[in-house]
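Chapter summary example.
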Amino acid sequence: MAWLQSDSKLRNHQKVEAAAEDLGISKIEFIGHLHLMWWWVIEYKEKGLVTPYGNIKDDERQLAIAKLLAKGAEWEDDPLTFYNTLVKYAWIDVLDNGDVEIHDWNELSGKYSIRKEQAKERQRKFRAKQKAKDEFYNPKQIDMEAEVWDGKAEIVESVSTIDRGEGATLNQRLFSSLTRTIRGGWDDMPQNERGRYNQAVGQLAEINADPEEIPVRYKHYVMKYGSTPTPQALVNNWGDLAKQPVKLSNDELSKLNKKAREGGSLDSWANE
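The structure predicted for these 272 residues follows.
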């Protein structure tokens, strides 16, 4: 809700008395018109700068602004008379280009416009942070390819490029990669589960773990132990799951690659 800072001394201000006399109205009436104009400005011209709408010729600019101010102030007589009185007693300031600023607007608006801009900036930063959180690391599908050396099958993992969000920290990237790898993302994640993931992320960050390694070592864990790891289990076995070929039989390799081609998860493969 917008509000104005109105000084109680305004009712006896010399500028009020002089302007009211020039317009042929009472002080109370002028103060009322003045506040109506200010309220209109804070709603439609919140920075206190009044410019005409549309393409206005220079010789029509003054009248267009005068009509706007008169309308906002609910002044029903000649708008230029009201406008000229405002200029004469410095209730408004005319700029070189003909536009108008409300005199001492920052004081009148109680710095409302400044605080509103600050709030907008905070909101912009918050949205940028949320966007970075949503976009920082988006692991692509991991392609499993087979190579056979001396009759033994080895899994060669090709991890496609992971999208990097602007300004994402290591902890953010680790959290994104870990949650996407183990549970497909962090949507609807309970608070207690988030705590377990955050704990694991903190431990991974301490050893400067590479987020791209998480899906790789996750696959190694599944192949080695035949089950899917919890975040802590993955951390506890991190060193043992270093990037290296995983030995599988030809039958196991065939089954794994079939699952990959069909879009199946390693979870279902491991549980068969």
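To summarize the output: The two ends are 61 Å apart (CA to CA).
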